[in-house]
Design a protein that fits this description.
Strand 7 and strand 8 form a beta hairpin. It is globular, with a radius of gyration of 16 Å. The protein is α/β, with parallel strands linked by helices. The termini are far apart. It has two domains: 60 residues, Signal recognition particle alu RNA binding heterodimer, srp9/1 (2-Layer Sandwich), CATH 3.30.720.120; 55 residues, 2,3-Dihydroxybiphenyl 1,2-Dioxygenase, domain 1 (Roll), CATH 3.10.180.
């Protein structure tokens, strides 16, 4: 059977889901849609544009190795189309966010950028046309 529509949601595991949610609200314009306890983990449920993202604590049965922030097998990054990339990047830099790479666009502005988010997750931001 084929997939219907886009992806449903993504989970980010964090020792501090509330702190991660605040970062996502401040820098990506996320909206908290709810909070819940599920299967031994606290969850903060967010909406970023049309995308769903849940940030949860580690579950008792999870066996997670800490990330060293380097590329490794598995998910590489999450990408969002944004409006006003230049302003977002300025706010992020002032807020201490690590901007890994800015990709130039026409007329000297940035067309895309990669930034480090909560738990060292890499986010790509692409300026919507």
């Amino acid at each position: 059977m084929p997939v219907v529509g886009g992806y449903h949601h993504v989970h980010l595991i964090s020792a501090d889901p509330e702190g991660a949610a605040r970062w996502l609200e401040r820098f990506l314009g996320a909206r908290v849609e709810g909070r819940e306890e599920a299967r031994g983990a606290r969850n903060v449920i967010l909406r970023i544009g049309e995308a769903a993202l849940s940030v949860r604590t580690q579950r008792p049965e999870d066996n997670l190795a800490p990330s060293d922030g380097r590329t490794r097998p598995g998910l590489d990054h999450v990408c969002f189309l944004v409006d006003g990339l230049a302003g977002m990047l300025g706010d992020m830099k002032r807020g201490g966010v690590t901007v890994e790479l800015e990709i130039p666009g026409p007329a000297g502005g940035s067309a895309a950028a990669f930034v480090r988010g909560p738990e060292n997750v890499l986010f790509e931001l692409i300026q919507a046309k």
